[in-house]
Design goal:
Tetracycline Repressor, domain 2; mainly alpha; 70% helix; 0% strand; single chain
């Protein structure tokens, strides 16, 4: 009699399936509409496996937020992968990355951080703090690019890099929210282009055709 062959367990793979399923579901329907049973069925794992890795839905929500933030910042890192050829080069690449992300998506782009912020910021202090951290990371990256450009080229008008960075963050998040309700990415792309034109104008850059 031969013993049955058992597939070796891969805890990290199981955990990532759960996180990826949560991320997917939050983007589609938000956190409130995503239960543990649905996460498990989408990931193709048991509820026992879920609770082996996560104590609660809040805990996996934090893991999904971290996963999404890491994904996004890895995309944006390409903006500074090479030395700037001119003062606003890295900023322009940053805008191009956002436009490409929206243009190449199969459906209007949403954001895990934005989705959970809208739902939970007033009701769940721990998730609000987590979302705030990742939104601040985004603003800090934009602030770094603006500071770099200002050091390389004196702007036409003085501006507060912190305020402009948060303006860009708000425009990005708000555009995704509205585009989601309208079911079209065109407005988001147009808004990003207007944001680029606004930044160019701060530095007196000629308008692009």
């Amino acid at each position: 009699m031969t013993s049955a062959i058992r597939t070796p367990r891969n805890p990290e793979e199981t955990r990532q399936k759960l996180v990826s399923a949560t991320r997917q579901l939050v983007l589609q329907q938000g956190l409130n509409g995503t239960g543990v049973d649905l996460i498990c069925s989408t990931a193709g794992v048991t509820k026992g496996a879920f609770f082996h890795h996560f104590k609660s839905k809040d805990e996996i929500a934090k893991a999904a937020l971290a996963d999404w933030a890491n994904f996004g910042m890895a995309l944006y890192a390409a903006a500074v992968a090479e030395p700037a050829r001119y003062p606003l080069d890295h900023l322009h690449k940053f805008f191009d990355i956002m436009i490409g992300f929206v243009r190449d998506a199969d459906s209007p782009v949403t954001c895990v951080v934005g989705m959970i912020s809208q739902e939970m910021a007033l009701a769940n202090p721990a998730l609000r703090e987590t979302c705030s951290t990742y939104l601040t990371d985004w603003a800090d990256f934009a602030r770094h690019l603006l500071t770099e450009a200002r050091a390389a080229q004196k702007p036409r008008v003085d501006f507060d890099v912190e305020e402009v960075a948060w303006f860009l963050n708000s425009l990005w998040q708000g555009s995704m929210l509205i585009a989601k309700t309208r079911g079209t990415p065109e407005m988001t792309i147009a808004n990003i282009r207007r944001a680029r034109a606004y930044v160019d104008d701060l530095f007196g850059e000629p308008a692009k055709a």
